[in-house]
Design brief:
single chain; 23% strand; Rossmann fold; alpha/beta
Amino acid sequence: MSKQIVLFDFIFVKLEIVEKGPYNLRMETLVFISHAQPEADSTAPASEWRLSHAGREAARARAEELRSLGLTRLFSSLEPKAVETARILGQALGVPSGFAAGLHEHDRSNLGFLPAPERFEALVRDLFQKPGERVFGLESADEAHSRFRAAVERLAAQYREDTLGIVSHGTVISLLVSRANGLDGFEFWKGMQMPDHFVLALPNFVLVRSR
């Protein structure tokens, strides 16, 4: 059996037997799940956006891809688009969903409506390239990474007997996964879908498989 954690802008915990040659390695894993596509609203900050119709349909479709993982409990950030993604997944999979502090996106709550896609992409690139600076928003990349990783580790420790799924956000997931695996964080972020999911081995968040 395996103990595994899942992330969708989510995390799930589960223990797995992995065979490699003549060896059996007992490995604890987690899965991050990024939230589905939101409906952009120029009158509200991105942290308050809800899912679009297409996003809700994509979340239902993603649930079928996750079914084989045997999830038993889902957690999300408090942001509506993540809560709604988790709720849709939980209903489809027949498991409870809840939310937890510290799983939110890089804090941009002071910005209001975000700029044009090209400008926003440039800001995110700067965030990854200057991790100690608050290049935009209220957190540096280092601060967002530390806060998010601590929240994930608290849930993993508290729900060790569950197969957990954590629904979270593209930037913080990319920060954690890329730093743990020596990847280019900006390119990882740029390639992420909404929703998406990634399986990682604990305690060091080694990427086992994506999607």
